[in-house]
User: Fold these one by one.
Assistant:
Number 1:
Amino acid sequence: MSLFPKAGGLRRTIRDTIRVFNRNKTSWAGLVLLLFMVSLAVLAPWISPYDPIDQNILERLSPASAEHLLGTDHFGRDILSRILWGARISLSVGTISVLMGMAVGTVLGILAGYKGKYWDYMIMGVMDVFMAIPTLLMGLMVVAVLGPNLVNLTIAIALTVAPRFARIARAPTISIKNRDFVEAGRAMGFSDLRIMAGHIFPNILGELIVMGSLWIATAVRIEASLSFIGLGVKPPTPTWGGMIREGFQNILSDPWISIYPGIFILITVLAFNMLGDGLRDAIDPKLRNS
């Protein structure tokens, strides 16, 4: 028995998904905002007016002007250039860490839900321990142990989101594993690995994609929070959270140092949340078929 729809059914499913996505206008706004932020990050080497780590002490703490559109920090570095380059790190860390966490969590969740019994107790027991620790505190502990750098920061955030994806993957797996097409696969002699990868995973992929888009927004916030307390990428590499921390000492006299990167964090998180809301509606079969 084939799990995947025929060509006509697949085209109809895609058409219905797009139709439902179009109903939610804010989802398109989120997609446009996200594409804008990604474009800024990708094009940063060509559109940033200055080198993000170049210092000019004669222009330190300068407000917005024709030369520096968003002003400069206390080292005379151009704020706009640092924000554009910081977008590359924030978006990269957020996306890669969530993909890593999704991969690990999905495998563990499907395994726990499909195998059941002691596999379920053991895997989900460990996941519950990780979920009992607040995400920021979990990331802080991992980075504190491994050291503050880009790789360790990505691993730390991935560990905080993996248990969430395990929970998301486990629940529908328990329901799907007793469906007729899975029983047919067992009757035909399919291995457990083939059933989990070819029959169960495609049926829960939609939920994982929706939660992935929402958790990228959370990962961006976690990265900014860890950078703010000094456990992110080391200076002078620009990150949004690090820029907010650097400008915090001048928040009353020169607020633009912290405000502008904070605005970019707000726009990015808002874009992912609006896009995730639209994806949730589009992937939900009840809304798609209504």
Number 2:
Amino acid sequence: MTTAHSAPWIGGDVDYNSAGHGYSLQRRADPRIASMVLHALGDARTVVNVGAGAGSYEPTDRHVIPIEPSQVMRSQRPAHLAPAVHGAAESLPLDDRSVDAAMATLTIHQWADWRRGAAELRRVARGPVVVLTFDGDAMDRFWLASYLPEMIREERRRMPPIGEIARALGGAAEVVPVPLAIDCTDGFSEAFYARPEAFLDERVRRGQSFWRFLPTGVEERFVRQLTDDLRGGEWDRRHGHWRTAPFFESAVRLIVARRV
């Protein structure tokens, strides 16, 4: 018999049954981003959260159906959130227009077939579909690009173009830039624009999926170079103004697609 623990991985390009241990400690919802997501959901009372993971950005004031392929991620959900259903974006176990809204936060780039997943979000939602994602074309604004051009290439390969996501979701889609605060609590790479030392912590890097796609030796090279540049003051000479910048105009985008 196949159990939730032994179910085959169905979730896309990163196997979070292997990579998801400790994820919830590094990837904690930032309250300012969460507020934007909640606002985008409007007055929806029933919401499906696809790629729900450990529950970041999941509203607590409405009925949520979380869908998550990784048992390891499901096990990290706090007790106050609903248990997640084992499933994948490409085949949601819901009827047509069965929920008021659908959401997917920082996950669409990891789906095996993001277009099919987007069609499923639209199929099951009577109202808005809310997708939090990254704009690959804007990633080179971040100082990390000067250390890791390989990261930019890989992330642009993985990230579906923003315009294509909006069209795939159908309806009237709005794309909202998401500025990051200097003390952003989520652990994706741009959240540390003012805190370069964080990248020397292996636990921080393990909470960022892109490292798994870099060529052998690139991560080790980066750690050596950043360590040297921080000790010698080179990072601060080139990028030190970011240490006190209250916000960063990041590559994060909130796409809100409403039925017309």
